[in-house]
Structure formats: C-alpha cells, structure tokens
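Hi everyone,

Forwarding the result from last night's run.
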Amino acid sequence: MAYFVKSAHRSVAVAAPIPRDESLPSVCVIGAGSSGLAAVKALYLAGLPFDCFEKGSAIGGNWLFDNPNGHSACYETLEINTSCPRMAFSDFPMPADYPPYARHDQVHAYFEAYAEHFGFRDSITFGTTVTDVARTDDGRWRVRTENSDGGRERVYDAVLVANGHHWDPRLPEPSYPGSFSGEQIHAHDYRSGDQLAGRDVVVVGAGNSAMDIAVEGAKRANSVALSIRRGQWVMRKFLFGMPSDQIALPGWMPWWVTTARLRIGALGSGGLKKYGLPKPPHTPGQSHPVQSEQIRTQIAAGKVKVRPGITRFDGDQVLFSDGTSARADLIVWATGYRVSFPFIDPSLVDPEDNELPLWKRTVHPDLPGLYFIGLLQPVGAVMPLAEAQSAWVTAMLTGGYEPPTDAEVRAQMMRDHERNKRHFYASPRHTMEVDFDHYLWDLARERRAGAKRAARRAPTEPGQRTPQSATRQQVGA
C-alpha cells in the first residue's frame, strides 16, 4: 500500500527502487533502529546488494516499547527532545497532526510508515544476531550470524555498523562504599511509573532520562531524591510559545553562534539555583542540552528533593556529599551508556571511555569498508545525520564520490575531534558530540567536493578502480 505523508506544504510520493546491481559492492547493515533504517533505505534505492540483520523481530530500536531485541531503553512517558520537523528524515516529514514533540509510539509508527513508504522492509532479516565481524585476507569483511536455524557466515565488501549507543548501561566505577539494602536498576531497565509507585526513590543523574524519571516519580513514588553531582542547564521545550529548537542556524556559522543560541535558551528557561540544583560550572554550549518542562514545578512543590553526589550507602540510607541522607528502597542509575561493539574484536575497534575518533563520525581510516552510522551525539536529532551519513557512504560504494588523500582524511578527522573536545567539557557523554546544523552543512560540502573528484576520474582509464574494488582501496587501505 502506498503511503503519502502530508505536511503543510506537500505530499511525498513513493520512490521506485532500482534493481540490485550485483556488480556493485556487497554490504552488511547491522541493526534496524533509526540509523539502520536510514542506511537500508539509501542502499535499497541505489540498487546495492545488501543484507540487514536485526536481532529482534521488529524495527525501531529504542523507539519501540518493550522491543523484543532486549536492548530497548524506551519507557512509557518517553517523548522526543527534538521537535518533529528537526527529527524527521529530509524526504519523509512526520505527519502534520503530530504534536510538536512526538511520543515514542508515534515515532515508532513513523518508522514503520517510512519502511512501508520506501518498500524496503522485506529486505531486513529479523531474529538474527551478528556475532562476529572480521577482516579477510583480501581486505573484505566476514560476518557471522546466528538465529533459530543456526549460524551462518558471509563475506561482504562493506559493513555499516548501526547497532546504536544507548543499550549498554554504564554504572559508576568503582562502586560506592557501604552496602545498599534496596533494589538498584539502570535507567535502561526503567519502563514505567509502576516501578516507582509507593517507593522511596533516589534517581542519580542530570540528563534527560533522569529528569523524566524524577518527574514521574514525583507523581507515583512515596519520595524522590534527585542526586546531581554536576550542575546542568535544563532547557524548557517551548520558548515564546514555540518549540525551542525551531530557530535553525546556517551550518556555516561559527560555533559561538550556536553557543549563543543555547545560552539564550537557557536564560529564557530560567535558572535552577533557586530550586536547589548546583550552578553548572560550564556555559550552556559546553554540554549536551537537557530538556524538561516539569522538573521545576515538581521541585518547587517539594515532590523532588535535589541532592548532591552520593558518598556512601548504609542499609536503606543513601548518604550525600553535603552531609544529608535519604531513605531509599530503589536507586535508578541514569548514568549513561558505554559505546560497545560486541561483534568486533577490541584489537580492531576499542572505544575505551567512549573515545573513537572517526572521519566525519563515520569512517575509520585504518579499516576501509567499515562504516559507522548514527555513532554521534548531536545538539539536535540523530536521524537526519544518520540519513546524510548513509547517503554519503552509498555514494562512496557506487563510485559517485571520491575521498581526498589519506593524509587529508586523517588531518580532518583529528581537527574535528580536537575541536569538539574543546567545545564540550571532558566526559564520556561528550566524546561523540557534534553541532547538528554544522555537521550537515560540512558533510554536504564534502560530498560535493568528492563528487567533483569522482567526475574528474577517467572511467575508461586502464587500471581504473571500479566501485566493486573501491571499498577495499579507500582511505587507509
């Protein structure tokens, strides 16, 4: 069935896929979450031969409540923190009747419609886990998978890793002294306010999930303490009656302009010092934005007690650095995630402390043919960036894009990596941070430059590199 998404300005017609061209490089996509879907759509419409393996039985990743893949971090009250127009794929707007910030079920329905619209859903192999990805002697990639029928092994010219980075919970290390007599869970295991009902809860963290869980606890729990070790700027989702991220900036503008926009948003949202939250030791542009419409109200009403960092446990007591304590029978650790790839040997890729420099957050210059989709944390939504990455990689594989020299690739990668480290305070949370608008502008500029380099290449020149061999001779080969 054809699906037309109507916006205020247009309807999007169904695109016709190009038949697979077996002379083009073969590709494996790992994961069918939002980033994997963007990758599959790009490959499918370009006619590249590919397989996409998804561990669960459904698409959507973290946006599917109780995803059968067992890795979903979705909870009942989850909604997007980027407004719908900024989150949507460029050629598939979200329905006009969605609220400014869609609920998780609406986002998942949007992904289902996206797969239906472009016709690639049947190209995804469900119930299949990728267990190993390794280089072959000729520079290709051997991928081993397991499902209910057993294990299989295939060789591909390229692998697109889209397994996400919000599924491997990170807990404090080392653990705090003393012993806690109650229950401890990570925010990854939180599903609904039912888990908080009637309990004395300590939520640890200052990110979006921590704020959401604390707000829900204010409505359902007996008591809620929100333990924040480092202050954060907490933005409101609406300013002047409109979504606060609707002031889009040209991507070519310098970072200080984005910082100024975030500072205005923070000041317009109002400070949190009077609510007991510690003053952030950084400016609004030096950390990933945190948004909450309700946390101020719940703190002001006394429903959420703000506490500093934890120092130790004593049975059912949680002791904090200011000498106060709180009784608790449940601790929710909203302390982020580790970036991990259990199917890749650490000798090839080891993102220790979430540190993994990549060219344009996509290409590992030492591992040609291995690409990472959606492995970034934008000041904005991941989806449009994953879409742009996927289109770029597809152009590489089909011969429509030629990279610069290996030396220039490495120089760009380190310049970007060091620049991003200067922009954001040092934390595993910020190792993949990028500026949404600048990233899209910069990647589009590089794609245009690469298309010109490819056009200058004589197609009939003896020894010409074909798209099939290109993936093995790209940067770093």
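DSSP finds ten helices and 22 strands in the chain.

Cheers,
N.
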